[in-house]
Amino acid sequence: MTDKEEAERIMAKYHRDFGTFSQNATRKEYRFVLRYVAGEAHCKQREIAGLSNDVDTNKD
Q: Could you please report the per-residue DSSP string of 11-34?
């Protein structure tokens, strides 16, 4: 199961309600979902900013 599928499965368990999720999720579930969301947000920001994830172009 991919990270996305796992995060979707966990959120479906809490009916995609963040309030219920944050109150009732296990620590492992909570950390997993937030880490996944943060990683996706980081990738999206880099994409919008026009930065590449492949190669660091600032090497001397």
A: HHHTTT-HHHHHHHS-HHHHHHHH
Per-residue pLDDT of the chain (60 residues; tens, 9 = 90+): 899 999 999 999 999 999 999 999 999 999 999 999 999 999 999 999 998 655 454 444
Is pTM, for the whole model, over 0.90? no
As a whole number of angstroms, the distance between CA 19 and CA 22 comes to 5
Is residue 44 within 8 A of residue 25, CB to CB? The reply is: no
Q: From CA 42, how far away is CA 57, in angstroms rounded?
A: 18
Burial class (CB in 10 A: 0-12, 13-18, 19+), 33: buried
User: What distance in Å separates the CA atoms of residue 35 and residue 52, rounded to the nearest whole number?
Assistant: 21
